[in-house]
Amino acid sequence: MPGGALEGYRVVELGSLVSAPYCAKLFADYGADVIKVEPPGEGDASRSWGPFPNDEPHLEKSGLFFFLNTNKRGVTLDVASERGRELFLELVRNADIVIENQRPAQMRDWGVDYAALSKANPDLVMISITPFGQTGPYSDWNGYDLNAYHLSGTGYRYCGRPGEAPLEHGAFSADFFGAIAGAAWGLAAAYGRAQAGGGQQLDVSCAEVTAALFVGAQNIGGYAQDGVALSRTGVGMPLGAPATILRCKDGHVWMLALEPGQWDGLARVMGNPDWMRLEMFQDMFVRAENAEAMYPLIEQWTVEHTKEEIMDRCQAEGCPTTAIFSVAEIAEQPHLKERGYLVDVEHPLLGTVRDLGAPFRLPESPGGPVRAAPLLGQHNDEVYGSLLGLSAGKIDALRREGVV
Amino acid sequence: MAKALPLKGVRVANFGWVWAGPVVGQTLGFMGAEVYKIESRARIDINRTLPPFAEGVRDPDRSLQNHAGWAGNGSITLNLKQPEARELALQFVATCDVVIENFGPGAIAQMGLGYDVMRGAKPDIVMVSMPAAGLDGPLKDVRTYGMSLTSLTGLDSVTGYAGGPPVPMENAFVDPYNGVLAAFAVLVALAHRDRTGVGQHIDYSQQEAVMQLMGPAFMDYVLNGRVASTIGNKHPQGVGAPHGVFPCKGEDRWISIAVMNDDEWRGLVEAMGSPEWATSPELANAAGRRERVDALHEQLASWTTGFDDYELAQRLQEHGVAAAPVLNVADLLNDPHYRARATFIEVTHPLGFRETIYGAYVKTSRTEADVRPGPVIGQDNDHVFRGLLGLPEERYRRLIDEQVIY
């Protein structure tokens, strides 16, 4: 995208589903020329995952694919064929960065692992994002977000009720975490490759990124020294209170009133009930010890009020309680509308589609989705013709052979 | 391995505090940037006060959980309430490429160190601010904790046992997440600066950045008007079945299993020894499995419960099934995969004790990531104030005595 901050960077994506495509989307949304390579026929598996309008499967109408692939150019290529592999290497010679999330053995079989790609382009930065990484005993394991996420300890330590199953976030959290780590480290490697003496491979394991940065950061030092390993409570913050999710009239709120000023603010909002002045509720630590008695008392009040009302009044009184918004409420939130976070993107089959905008805002070089995700092979002529210089006849021949 | 790191020569003034801001600096530091956290003994960062402490000695330089998240940042001390400290901060910023801050919106401007002032000191500075809901808009002053920020993104509304109430993520997942993504934002702006000569002030709304995790659910709302709710460990698009966490032998031991296609299902059936219930033709295709997902999960749980989680994962993998043990904190340190990848490493802190932190969680094939222990408060004062800024010895001593450098 001209005028974007990353104008001049060319990225080739050999990705499917969530991690590598989201990583490449970050580059595309800030102006890099991202060429997404999909297998002919079905394309990226996320084209088959949906959500689809009216739940009717259609390769060009997947909401997941739409969200993850804005601003990219799309080509089809059978990398498994000899001619396909040659064309892939030709694309790589014209690129700064490759982003992929195939299983390591698959990349070796295709002859497009880092050893092969770096021979074609020594300055190449290759961002490889997989559930488990390129090395280590699980590197050839099959895996998805769910497996990587739970190998990180996130659910066991921090999400779920004791004795019941540890929980995923309800999203592709480990895939996203791997994607952004790959983006940050990969762009650093590309930005500084002249002084580093060339390109390199970034080996990203979604499990490891999450295990290190989240669970490890807060637990591993203490465990290594003292042997104490804590686990989920299902409540929120066990050491201070209130710090939990409570029911309200129309849903739930994240109830937080830890510091004295916050607790006093909550008291004012609730009309200063007498029980809040009891000795057993006088600081956040004592309150935590008596949380089982206290939470029903607060909930008696919250169930009489709406989430927005509770949030607005608490925030106004210095208490950081917030509403737990549903996706529908977020989609209509005046704050996000006023900031222009929600954008409309034109798609040839889906029509005008509301999308989430740029994840962060760069006033001097705006980013975010402008062009819809590509149709399968939409840019074949443009990329193979203009970029690689193949004649129309040659491209047609490749089509007939099923390479493109 | 070459030692010329890609970001060598990039200098960063990190006013960030607690967790997210320091992780921005850490991420850039791993790749060679020279990062200094600016902090003060006049108001010790709350993260330095969190237990457990090295060798049990309560001290702001010994918080173990703090060190992992902060490692890679250097540290200089300035009591920014003092006008002379602000002057020094700006002199330092004038030598930097990047400024990081994660205070509430407007707080740094009130300290006399807003973007305009920073730009006065260094015209092409790249500054990133990362308040909860961005620098403008009706919710800009909203107060959250890292743990509850997700309530503003829709994410909390899908976290919980399927059909039940939301269950909290009991720590600030979003803090390190935003730290890493904001480092990417800084690099994007640096690339733009190098090409155009123009710096900028990045408006990093944590709400908007994290809401991207809700992109798939958002699309279902946009396309079908469907409002996502708690899904437990089920697949966010409902594609995979079975897709969950199942009990194993021992106390609180579990395995994750995700079946996304017919090949993987056949592998699972084979691994189970083809029991009658699993070979029913209704389960042979994805649609049939999705329809019966709850019953399927029950059957599977009664099978997994007799197995050791690690052994079962290995066995299922041999049949091509995506399965992995569900780890706890102790497992993280002992797991053979993380040990092989040196995910967690022991380092010697400048104060002499040994501590375990995470190392380079991304592996680099050419340049060796720069891994350092958590910083001692003010450890780089000499280097920055006397070396870099060239303060004469006498003034430097006076500023320390007057608790300006403090």
Helix content of chain A: 40-55%
**Number of DSSP helices of chain A?**
18
- Order of neighbouring strands in the sheet with most strands of chain B: 3-2-1-4-5-6
* CA distance, first residue to last residue of chain A: 25 Å
For the residues shown, what is the average pLDDT of chain B?
96
Q: What is the CA-atom radius of gyration of chain B, in angstroms?
A: 25 Å
Number of strands of chain A: 11
Question: What global shape of chain B is seen?
Answer: elongated
Biggest sheet character of chain B: 6 strands, parallel
Structural description of this entry:
The complex is a heterodimer of chains A (404) and B (406). Chain A has helices at residues 19-29, 63-68, 82-93, 104-110, 114-120, 145-151, 154-158, 173-191, 193-196, 206-226, 260-269, 284-289, 291-302, 307-316, 327-331, 334-338, 380-387, 392-401; strands at residues 10-14, 33-38, 73-76, 97-100, 125-130, 200-205, 243-248, 251-256, 322-323, 342-347, 351-356. Chain A is an alpha/beta fold and 404 residues long. Chain A has a six-stranded parallel beta sheet, sandwiched between helices. Chain A has a three-stranded antiparallel beta sheet with strand order 7-8-9, covered by helices on one side. A two-stranded antiparallel sheet of chain A has the order 10-11. The mean pLDDT of chain A is 97. In chain A, helix 1 crosses helix 8, helix 6 packs parallel to helix 10 and helix 8 packs across helix 10 (206-226). Chain B has 406 residues and is α/β, with parallel strands linked by helices. Chain B contains 16 helices and twelve strands. Chain B has helices at residues 20-30, 64-70, 83-93, 107-110, 115-121, 174-196, 206-211, 215-224, 262-271, 286-291, 293-304, 309-318, 329-334, 336-340, 381-388, 393-401, and strands at 11-14, 34-39, 74-77, 98-101, 126-129, 200-203, 243-247, 254-258, 322-325, 344-348, 354-358, 362-364. A six-stranded parallel beta sheet of chain B has the order 3-2-1-4-5-6, sandwiched between helices. In chain B, strands 7-8-9 form a three-stranded antiparallel beta sheet, covered by helices on one side. In chain B, helix 1 (20-30) links the parallel strand 1 and strand 2. Classes of the chains: A alpha/beta (404), B alpha/beta (406). Chains A and B meet through helix 2, helix 6, helix 7, helix 8 and helix 9 of A and helix 1, helix 2, helix 6, strand 6 and helix 7 of B. Strand 6 (200-205) of chain A pairs antiparallel with strand 12 (362-364) of chain B.
